[in-house]
Amino acid sequence: MTAEQTLALIKPDAMEKKLQGKIIDDILNAGFTIKTMKMLQLSKEKARKFYAVHQGKEFYAPLVAFMTSGPVIALLLEKVNAIEDYRNLMGKTDPAEAVKGSLREKYGESTRRNAVHGSDSPENAKKEIAFFF
Ligand code: IDP
Ligand code: MG
């Protein structure tokens, strides 16, 4: 089985609450290798582009405002079945619906402020990795 790569983000809400150490610890304990990572501040333009698929939805503008409200950490993760496994580790978009023990259940506070991002398909993983690294 060949290793797969995915793109994870620790979002500004989790950074504000100093949860980045706990989240990285959970990611490593779940068997992912961190190939590289960096902390950065997204510009409005970059955030709009990153979430372009959601343009036109009512949550798009507040999402861009949230994602540019403070720094994020981008992580390039590697593991067999990384994309699906990281989506499962993350849990559902709404932390209230996320499975017990998942990152969003443990660290998220609302559907917008849900602590982490993860690529949802091989095509998007490739695009998102290139976007950050
Ligand atoms: P995902 O992050 O679980 O893949 P998406 O539907 O791709 O979820 O939405 C991207 C991000 O937009 C979410 O992680 C969340 O921060 C925000 N978002 C999605 N839906 C809503 C909503 O209904 N209200 C507020 N924010 C939302
Ligand atoms: Mg998504």
Q: Key terms for this structure?
A:
133 residues, alpha+beta, Alpha-Beta Plaits
Describe what this molecule looks like in 3D.
The protein has 7 helices and 4 strands; from the N terminus they run βααβααβααβα. It is globular. It has helices at residues 12-16, 20-29, 44-50, 60-67, 82-90, 103-107, 122-132; strands spanning 3-10, 33-40, 72-80, 116-118. It has one domain: Alpha-Beta Plaits (2-Layer Sandwich), CATH 3.30.70. With 133 residues, it is an alpha+beta fold. It has a 4-stranded antiparallel β-sheet with strand order 2-3-1-4, sandwiched between helices. The structure holds inosine-5'-diphosphate and magnesium ion. The site of inosine-5'-diphosphate has 8 residues, from loops. Inosine-5'-diphosphate (IDP) is lined by residues 59, 63, 93, 111-112, 114, 117, 120.
Helix-strand blueprint:
Layout: E1 3-10, H1 12-16, H2 20-29, E2 33-40, H3 44-50, H4 60-67, E3 72-80, H5 82-90, H6 103-107, E4 116-118, H7 122-132
Antiparallel strand pairs: 1-3, 1-4, 2-3
This protein binds inosine-5'-diphosphate and magnesium ion (MG).
Inosine-5'-diphosphate is lined by residues 59, 63, 93, 111-112, 114, 117, 120.
